[in-house]
Prior knowledge:
Blueprint (H helix, E strand, L loop, with lengths): L1 H9 L7 E2 L6 H7 L6 E4 L16 H4 L5 E4 L2 H5 L5 H13 L3 E6 L3 H5 L3 H9 L7 H4 L2 E5 L13 H14 L4 E4 L5 H8 L16 H10 L1
Parallel strand pairs: 1-2, 2-3, 3-4, 4-5, 5-6
Helix pairs in contact: 1-11, 10-11
Amino acid sequence: MATDISLRAGDRDDVDVVLFPPFPHLWPVCDAISQSRIKLGAQNCFWENAGAFTGEVSPAQLSGWCEWVLVGHSERRHLLKESDEEVTKKVDGALKTDLKVILAVGETQDERDAGTTKAVIERQLQSLDGVAAPDLARVAIAYEPVWAIGTGRTATPEQAEAVCAEISARFPGLRVIYGGSVTAANAVSLFACEHISGALVGGASLRADEFAQIVAAA
């Protein structure tokens, strides 16, 4: 039943739907969505395509059957201590193997309270500074305030729109999406914002009926 609901969500031709399962589930999910318009993405990748990097998954191993890869998620930045330099190398490695990239950026609560949100986002966006225009067209940017991820707290539409508008001004033409406790209840108001082109959905994506409602809201 859950799979059926999710596949129906992916049948809409006016919304791009991408699933990012954990690595062990990539193959079965790929099979499950093969007859739908839903695309497949990986939650992370390494930056080198070959070498002695035990436990890592290279962009080359994903390219060809995964269309997207998520890079720079806040949990990897803060829990696993990925640096901006490492995120930049992952973006470059993924784009060199024809993957599309969602680059996640966002500030912590302390950074927002200190008034440094703009500086933090600008620093994290430097991962795209060396990307050539044709490759940049394969990038989407996810604004995910760290204080709103898995906390039940969502940035207000006004807060989210303000940051997404600044990102759009920096990279006109790129899709900018919002992530941070997105639910069916708040999706409509978020998607009504001029510079928010979609959502990076976390916990709500595990509830198929709610995820389908979010897709419908988009």
